């Protein structure tokens, strides 16, 4: 996916849209977008954490992102799967390109080892510009969990961040127990 432009709507000041090219498809217009720096995101999360506590923040971010992605997958990923024109591996690659182009980070690897799924991400947006004592990429974990479940028709337990760039690691790594393998597993 390639970001072509971000502009204000001509008739709506303060409302942005983005034009993007999605590989093997066509141009897509994201009709209402915001631009937020990772520093703003980190400050925003710090404020919520101070209000709710870090333990309460994780499930809110994770399940909000998971639910959001599941809803969007119905319009995108699941529709593409039903068409049957692309392999699930290729669909996952495209989803990872979109994830990266939108600034969430770069999915470097995904593995299925001994009943566990493991995903490595470089430059997760939640870890950029932030230092922490514990993993902070809860929103990214929710997005990735929904994508993996839907693309590969598997069911997993929660995707948990095991190591995080915000704590000084080079990458963020996530893992989840596979509860049910699908016919199109990784």
UniProtKB/TrEMBL annotation:
Pfam families: V4R (PF02830). Residues 116-178 form the 4-vinyl reductase 4VR domain. Transmembrane segments: none annotated. It comes from the Archaea. SUPFAM superfamilies: Ligand-binding domain in the NO signalling and Golgi transport. This is 4-vinyl reductase 4VR domain-containing protein.
């Amino acid at each position: 996916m390639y970001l072509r432009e971000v502009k204000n709507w001509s008739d709506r000041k303060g409302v942005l849209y983005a034009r993007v090219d999605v590989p093997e498809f066509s141009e897509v217009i994201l009709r209402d977008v915001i631009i937020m720096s990772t520093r703003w995101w980190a400050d925003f999360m710090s404020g919520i954490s101070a209000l709710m506590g870090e333990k309460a923040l994780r499930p809110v971010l994770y399940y909000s992102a998971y639910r959001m992605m599941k809803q969007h997958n119905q319009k995108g990923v699941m529709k593409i799967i039903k068409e049957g024109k692309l392999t699930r591996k290729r669909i996952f690659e495209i989803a990872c390109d979109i994830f990266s182009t939108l600034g969430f980070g770069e999915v470097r690897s995904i593995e299925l080892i001994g009943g566990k799924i493991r995903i490595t991400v470089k430059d997760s947006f939640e870890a950029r510009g932030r230092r922490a004592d514990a993993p902070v990429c809860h929103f990214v974990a929710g997005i990735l969990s929904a994508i993996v479940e839907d693309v590969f028709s598997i069911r997993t337990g929660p995707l948990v961040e095991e190591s995080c760039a915000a704590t000084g690691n080079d990458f963020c790594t996530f893992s989840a127990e596979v509860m049910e393998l699908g016919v199109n597993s990784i």
